[in-house]
Task: inverse folding
């Protein structure tokens, strides 16, 4: 082991102290390079081959891949380097400083999820890395909190072929083998405004939106009737109308109306297919009112994810973690990591209830179990016969 390596508190604190906020708004968005430079230094000292790869369609964001060992197979430990923005007025501690108190390690990204990389580093200190028979990969991605462009770009161009993958999102050390996807669409209708006393001289966008919503309700029922996965607490795809606005006065024909909706598809429904369904169901209204309806994506969606709870990898991880594989409702990078062809699980310390919250923390009693779990998984995937 290199004597250059920091202690766990030092590495954990250094990662928190390197701001790496992802935001759609330019003013808040930050590069993740300072985090990657730390990882490159530490894993490089352990003998890993470290690469930083620019991510297209981002603002100076990069992926980081560290590899020790040659060939295919082995294990990929993955996570994202970015955090959400924070509201300084609601934090009781400095979000960019590790604060240890009351059995908790506080800081922005402590559980979601820069702290995971510090725990990987700690696990490697007690592993005979010269005994690796199969490669160990560490992926630190960019922009998970916004576009997931980092994971998407990595999956599209990856040269590695691990047999297993763990994504260290906060799951309270419960292995997750499946989650729903997410699609957010906007529907904008532009009619013709006019005085309410003569409806024939205008084209009321609210009237057209009424027809659009009628078709969307048919699609929602179709999804509920034809797709089901009983492992989820809500076992069918959902559609939510989250925002609607139209018009400006009771005595004026509404010239514009806009609806924002959210769809959560089950595994087996690709986002591209879901968008096609949406267009097909709205086609009768589009044909009736040509040129008035625009359908757009509000922000990049996320594909659903599914692996098997009964695979040998899932059974092994469940046994080591002491928790059975389960499903969750939030989205992760797992569907893109799964594209590498590896058995993929989401498993990490901390609670999703702390993610995106003021005074985010990782419970101290999860730190040692996580380090031990990582050692055992690396031993099985990369060293054992």
Result:
């Amino acid at each position: 082991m290199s004597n250059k390596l920091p202690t766990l508190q030092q590495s954990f604190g250094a990662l928190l102290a390197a701001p790496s906020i992802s935001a759609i708004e330019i003013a808040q968005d930050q590069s993740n390079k300072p985090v990657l430079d730390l990882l490159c230094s530490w894993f490089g000292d352990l003998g890993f081959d470290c690469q930083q790869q620019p991510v297209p369609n981002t603002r100076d964001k990069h992926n980081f891949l560290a590899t020790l060992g040659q060939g295919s197979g082995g294990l990929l430990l993955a996570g994202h380097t970015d955090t959400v923005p924070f509201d300084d007025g609601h934090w009781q501690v400095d979000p960019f400083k590790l604060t240890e108190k009351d059995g908790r390690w506080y800081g922005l990204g402590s559980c979601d999820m820069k702290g995971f990389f510090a725990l990987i580093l700690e696990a490697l200190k007690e592993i005979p890395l010269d005994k690796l028979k199969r490669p160990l990969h560490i992926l630190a991605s960019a922009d998970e909190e916004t576009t997931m462009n980092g994971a998407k770009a990595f999956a599209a161009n990856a040269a590695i072929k691990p047999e297993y993958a763990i994504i260290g999102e906060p799951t309270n050390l419960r292995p997750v083998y499946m989650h729903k996807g997410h699609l957010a669409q906007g529907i904008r209708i532009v009619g013709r405004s006019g005085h309410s006393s003569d409806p024939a001289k205008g084209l009321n966008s609210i009237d057209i939106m009424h027809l659009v919503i009628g078709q969307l309700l048919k699609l929602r029922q179709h999804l509920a009737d034809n797709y089901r996965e009983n492992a989820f607490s809500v076992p069918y795809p959902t559609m939510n109308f989250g925002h609607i606005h139209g018009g400006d006065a009771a005595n004026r024909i509404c010239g514009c109306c806009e609806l924002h909706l959210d769809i959560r598809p089950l595994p087996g429904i690709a986002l591209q297919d879901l968008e096609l369904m949406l267009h097909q169901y709205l086609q009768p209204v589009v044909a009736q009112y040509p040129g008035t309806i625009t359908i757009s994506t509000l922000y990049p969606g996320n594909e659903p994810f599914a692996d098997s709870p009964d695979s040998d990898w899932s059974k092994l991880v469940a046994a080591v973690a002491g928790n059975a594989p389960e499903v969750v409702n939030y989205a992760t990078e797992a569907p893109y990591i799964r594209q590498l062809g590896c058995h993929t699980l989401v498993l990490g310390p901390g609670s999703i209830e702390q993610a995106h919250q003021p005074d985010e923390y990782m419970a101290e009693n999860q730190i040692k179990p996580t380090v031990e779990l990582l050692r055992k998984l690396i031993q099985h995937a990369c060293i054992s016969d």
Q: What stands out?
A: The mean pLDDT is 96. The domain at 8-179+304-383 is CATH 3.40.630.10 (Aminopeptidase). The chain has two domains: 8-179+304-383, 182-302. The radius of gyration is 24 Å.
